[in-house]
Amino acid sequence: MNTMMGKDGTVEYHKLYIDGKWVAPHSKTYIAVENPANEELLGYVSDADSEDVLKALQSSDAAQVNWQSIPILKRAEYVTTLIEKLRSQQPYFATLLAKEQGKTYQEALGEVADTIGYMQYAVESAKHIKSDIMPVMDKDEAFVIKKVPYGVTVALCAWNYPLALVGRKLGPALITGNTMIIKPHELTPLATTEFFQLVDEVGFPPGVVNLITGNGTEAGNLLVSSPITKLISVTGSVGAGQAIYKAASGHIAGLVLELGGKAPFIVLKDANIDKAVDAAIVSRYSNCGQVCTCCDMIFVQNEVAEEFTEKLLKKVAKIKVGDPFDPTTTMGPKVSRSDWEKIDAVVQKTIAEGAVLAAGGKRPEGEQFVKGHWYEPTVLTGVTKDMTAAKDEIFGPVLPIIRIKDFDEAVHITNASPFGLACYLFTEDYRIMIEASEVLQVGTVFINKQIFGYVHGFHSGHKLSGLNGEDGEYGLDAFMQKRALYINYSK
């Protein structure tokens, strides 16, 4: 079993999953997990120490050769069985996600569906991974470039989409012949821990998939700094990515870094304003603004700034903050007290710098909001490019609005940022659309479209926002090394 009952007989203490077995942490210590909507205790997860991490690494390493030797379509069958088990329990996992992360139940159902979609794409890709036979100079020779797995891979997952990020990383890793150790974020580890019940039921060979929970600094550092680890896939902050980059440099592990962003939402004077407003609402306030590619600031051309802002504020006023399980709720709480404090500090500092609080900016009123990490949907106007809310990633339901002269100014501000994850553009001018694809230094450009992503697409950051990328053919390719074979078959 993956849990032990607490002394009161109700609270669950979740174990680690190492080498095909549920094991208690060597440290005998656990980390509490709370519900961000009411601060109630949901359970405990194991706080792995160096001995637990080493066992997981050695287990994955020992399993690697045999797993790689299993034909790819057979590996795909294991993942297919895992998908079917998850599909049969979608409501259960959506409930866990809503409780531990704070997203609405409807958003959580979407996350479970995305988890399935990521793994399903990897399964379908198993039939299409191929090597290349290249031209040669001499008779009776062949030159082949073959794709091979890295070996032991580590997945470090962020707290905002805890289950989807597991599917996004695990499916490609297993299909391509790697073993994987998964470490969920300590704020939201429960859905991942329960997901490993399904992993256990599938019957993967011991060591192919391991679960480590615990403090990100200690357990995470041990995982990424070990020479056993050959590839690290990370979704997290820029600071975390930089630290992992350094820790992995000693043994030059492969890296897939999906990091923070500061996505501008550019609205030009010829844009469909109503369409832009609707897209901005979804692209900022989904999951309480806790999405790396959320629009993090508005650049609106002077000629339409008043119209856009007025219509936006009317839509913001209709956002319903409340119980994630109430079907009429459209936004839940922030994930933690510390994150609440960070975004409030950005808001208050930006107001002190001269911005105007046009909406929100505080905890909602009412008895149901006394506990929990609630923050009203917030809009700041009169913001300039040098203010705090225009420079720092907010990662919450706060939207600063900056007036711009033209598209060139928007490009200048965007490209001057150290971030380069995503950008939104609303215009009817096809010339500007084409120019945007050439000049905006970001990994994703949404043109006349709200936040979105295909499982067969590609998600990557430029500059400080990441390295390599995930999803689709290009993301799958990141889990494979290339090996050149020069063959002479003359007698």
Describe this structure in words.
By secondary structure, this protein is α/β, with parallel strands linked by helices. The chain has two domains: 276 residues, Aldehyde Dehydrogenase, Chain A, domain 1, CATH 3.40.605.10; 192 residues, 3-Layer(aba) Sandwich (Aldehyde Dehydrogenase, Chain A, domain 2). The chain contains 15 helices and 22 strands. A hairpin with a 6-residue loop joins strand 5 and strand 6. Helix 2 packs antiparallel against helix 4. It is globular.
Which radius of gyration do the C-alpha atoms yield?
24 Å
β-strand number: 22
Number of domains: 2
How large is the share of residues in beta strands?
A: 15-25%
Task: State the end-to-end distance.
Answer: 59 Å
**CATH topology assignment of the largest domain:** Aldehyde Dehydrogenase, Chain A, domain 1
- Stretches where pLDDT is under 50 for at least 5 consecutive residues are none
Number of helices: 15
Output the structural class.
alpha/beta
Architecture per CATH nomenclature, i.e. the level-2 architecture of the largest domain: 3-Layer(aba) Sandwich
**Please, what is the average pLDDT?**
96
How would you sum up the major sheet?
7 strands, mixed
